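During the second year of the project, the team shifted from modelling isolated chains to modelling whole assemblies. The rationale, set out in the original proposal, was that interfaces cannot be judged from single-chain predictions alone. As a representative example for this report, we include one of the complexes processed in the last quarter. Its constituent sequences, exactly as entered into the pipeline, are reproduced here:
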Amino acid sequence: MTTLLESLGRLRRPQVGPFFAARVLARTAEGKAPRPVPWFLWLYWLVLLVAASRLLVGSPAGLAIAAAVAAVVAFPAGSLAFLLRTFGALVREDGREPRG
Amino acid sequence: MTDEELVGRYRQARDPSAFRELVERHASRVLRLVSAVLGPFRHMDAEETAQDVFVRAHEKLEQFRGEASFGTWLYRIAWSVALNKTKAARIRLPHVAVDALSALASGDDPQRDLLDAERAALVAAAVETLPDLYRTAIYLHYWQQVPVSEIAAALTVPENTVKSYLLRGRERLGQQLAKKGLSS
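Output from the structure prediction step:
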């Protein structure tokens, strides 16, 4: 078996090309450039925004959701932490045993 | 300068020469690992896949915490990238032609080279059917001619585990090749 497997050593082995590192660096530099967003994606988000706004503005709960989403978008870290704290406090409040 | 120091330098100053140094240090080992995962039937994709590994590592460089060495972290990425590529390639091309390798051998005696290449192609076709870890260990050891200690580092497992992969892989191959009438 070992003899048979050693025949694999006769096969050509890939070698690192002379410009390998340069190609990698070129590709990493390409990755940094912002990619243009296709126009249909902008259109998709616009339609989604209009439809969602119409639904949300129709009720007080919808307005509250819109305000929460806007807060998260505007202040991601701070508002998320606030929402998590509030949610955590509500859950703790619900789970507390009645005193008496 | 150590790998970890180079990573730190790149993170702080975005100095491309630091990342270039890391690529140059690890290119051969990454290419060997990637080639072994892809196998000799897909050796044409090896260099591009090795580049993919470094590009992925570059994207994730901020996540490198230094808990393992940079090499170990990089080989894990290489393993994952190459395995995904080989799985995608198998979906596209589930059966590889045995004679696809006959042109790969080269030496002074063309007739002997052809026979050797045909035999190697049969063996490689049988190796292709092994589980990922056994297949990679066998290709690294017998095709890439990498010592067990280096295979252990590349696969981030102890040396005894590599020896066990090689042993079990050889046993399974022996059974398969015996069925095809090829035995040592």
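Helices of chain B lie at 3-13, 16-38, 46-59, 70-92, 110-127, 132-143, 148-155, 159-179. DSSP finds eight helices and no strands in chain B.
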